[in-house]
Amino acid sequence: MKINQKTKKKLIIGIAAALAVIALILAIRGARGFFRGEIDTSAGVEYIKKEEAGDISAIEAKIELLEKQDAGESDDRSVKEKFSGAVVVGDSITQGFLEYDILNASSVAAEIGVHLTQMDGLIGKVKELSPSIIFLALGSNDVIATNGDTEEFTAQYQDLISRLQKEVPDAHIFVNAIFPVQDKAIEKEPGLANIAQYNSALKELCDSKTIGFIDNTEIVSEEYFEQDGVHFKTSFYPIWAERMAEVASL
């Protein structure tokens, strides 16, 4: 069936408008990054690029929010509102988002002590929630379990990512770096001294799969740790949540 001139013109205008929207978003994000310093928003830019074929109204909402921020208007949305449609998947550290009432239950899929080879239940929950964005926050338990074998670790992580991509194909995945621990935790469990090495391997995996990697090292300080030197106090969770929201342009 041939497309008449009027319809063809509308299609061309629509495509041009969509491309203009994407260009504007990238320009705004670039300007904000220039003035605000070192935060790596490349993962967020990659997410926005993938949204090019998505709902224009949703993209326009993002533009409106960014314009307000650039005009000096504060983002008055709560952390819970920002994470609507997003899910953080992890272990006992992630569980803190629920224990301290930082995020809604619909934005958290966590299991205490979980390993990368024990993800069936959490994958099922994520599939049920059907988020548009998935933040993975795993690996602390696996650093110990794999005993320095980063190749085995990345193989397990890659399998998890592949399974999530199959079960929730429309979701965009971001991977959090494994959090550092205090010296007293390393004294108790020497294998935790390898966290930096594991994070390097994890970043390489993410780069190879074009998945956003969130390095949280700079937001962690001694004041946020619980007595065990591994888990975090209430005050840390809003900071971590805002970090993820910034990178993913929530």
Protein described:
With 250 residues, the protein is α/β, with parallel strands linked by helices. 54% of the residues lie in helices and 8% in strands. It is built from 11 helices and 5 strands; from the N terminus they run ααααβαβαβααβααβα. It has helices at 5-36, 42-50, 56-70, 79-82, 92-99, 120-129, 140-145, 150-167, 183-188, 195-208, 236-248; strands at 86-90, 108-110, 133-137, 172-176, 212-214. It has a 5-stranded parallel β-sheet, sandwiched between helices. Helix 5 links the parallel strand 1 (86-90) and strand 2 (108-110). Helix 1 (5-36) runs parallel beside helix 3 (56-70) and helix 8 (150-167) packs across helix 10 (195-208). The protein starts with a helix and ends with a helix. Residues 1-12, 31-38 and 51-55 have low confidence and may be disordered.
List keywords for this structure.
single chain; 250 residues; alpha/beta; five-stranded parallel sheet; 54% helix; 8% strand; disordered N terminus
Compact summary:
This protein has 250 residues and is of the alpha/beta class.
Report strand order across the widest sheet: 2-1-3-4-5
Mean pLDDT: 82
Helix content: 40-55%
User: What series of H and E elements makes up the topology?
Assistant: HHHHEHEHEHHEHHEH
Please describe the biggest sheet, giving its number of strands, its sense, and whether it closes into a barrel.
Answer: 5 strands, parallel
Shape: globular
Q: Which class do the helix and strand fractions yield? A: alpha/beta
